[in-house]
Design goal:
heterodimer; A: alpha/beta; Rossmann fold; 6-stranded mixed β-sheet; elongated; B: 0% strand; globular
Amino acid sequence: MESGANDTVIHAEGVWRSYGPGAHAYDAVRGVSLTVARGEVFGLLGTNGAGKTSTIELLEGLAPPTRGSIRMFGRHDPFRDRARVRPRTGVMLQEGGFANDLTVEETLRMWAGCTSTPRPVAEAAGVVGLTGRLRTAVKGLSGGERRRLDLALAVLGSPELLFLDEPTTGMDPEGRRETWSIIRGLRDMGTTVLMTTHYLEEAEQLADRLAIMHRGTIAEEGTPAGIVARFPSSLGFALPPGVDASLLPALDEAVAQVDPGAARAGAGGPGGRTGDRVRLTTDRLQRTAAHVLDWAREEDIELIGFNARSASLEEVFLQIADNGAADGGRTHSERRAG
Amino acid sequence: MTTATHLSSLGRAEATLFVRAKGNIVNVLFIPVMLLVVLVVTMTRFDLDSLGLALGPVMLSTTAGVVLVFALYVPLTTAYVVRRDELLLKRLRTGELSDPVILTGTALPAVAVAVVQFLLVSAIVVALTDAGLPTAPHYPLIALVLGCAMLAALACATSAFARNAENVQAALLPAVLVLPATSGAFFPLEAMPQEVQDVFQWTPLAPVIDLVRAGWSGDVGAGEALVRVGTLAAWTAIAAGAGHRWFRWEPRT
């Protein structure tokens, strides 16, 4: 451990990563900057192909960035200063990385021999719940068990900084919860964690801070609550047939989106018809909802299918993904850049 | 110290895998033994006496060539491809090991098998012929050390040209055909026209054959030996350069 002056574990500045030569180059990462502080769990979210794995591999030091700079522990370049950085980091790749014909115990023992200060093999297996599987060949493990073995290897050297690329993919709900509690335990002992995931619940449960990536850039960054707070809440309902959306009271704080005269058979009211469908987005959900409900009571109008929702990480995520879909896609020539 | 620990951990795991992979039994035991039997038969058909050669040293040099190609180069190339496809190489690269240590550690069992095989078969050949003990043992030693390095480096380069484990054989074929045939491992170069000999003496495996033979026959001057060692070292450097240039740490996507 170093002094308190060095509290930035990862600092990346304007990082790019391109695959392929010259004119055919594909930019998987396009100017990512991020800072991870000591003791923090930092989540990297994004759709498939957003550049999460390409980014985390740069931070792990598996490849140098095409442009930009990365500093680990305040001064080291993860690619060039590999020998200095690696004893302090643990890595779990997105996918496997085992010899299929070795047993769990042989795999752990090999990694222990390749690690400066390894935990005992039995302890490492115990932490991830693989004690009963020590003599099983890796190829006989389930997908979830392989992820656990991978986690055991990543934490074998008690690293200061842990990279986890989709750590719970392929796990059953119980395994996922156990993994979450292992990650929390590590954080409580001061381990810094940088993880990618495409499970929003996982990010909400674990991450102190998040970055949501889209098309190689960071679209949103902050605490989960902070990110969600920047996005508006929404109200939705349908008006009965004959009630025009223009009769709604004026609401300064809300933006209305009207789907006019969606008179679909069987969709709602007594006649099996509904009128205009209305969706209001607002930064002040309670106030807007009260206005709308007061108006409906005074006018004696039934709001069909009324619902009011605070913004959630899921909605933020979907909005970011949708925005991207609208601005015309680039071809993805490269499939592993998750 | 740490490098030694790293190498032994990796080497031990790789040795376990080596024993468990069925194909290796064929490559390591069956093929060299069969080749040697065939070679005894064909070699005795050449009029070695008229070429000024003794059967013992020719057999010993053939053993070195065959063992390096079939017991070292072939299984090691396969091992690199399989470990790459398993993403094991990429995973190892996230740890504390340096790239050369990963490559060397993976190569250790194949190198050990090749050396042990050479020693065992040599003992048999020495016992069966009148070759006796080598009069200049430093020549075969240098040939074996550099030969192992060259073929391990060539295995790195070759692995890049195999898309997956099923395609390894095709990628291996050129070297497996060309190296023994142009070096005197399959038949003495002395039996070929002088022009061919003049060209073939510069091929990668030829210096190994000549140096091993010289260990027993002692008919090589210091100057010529130096040229042979230089040729072998140059090919080793070229193979290492090719390996460095082309080696792939993860599967193509």
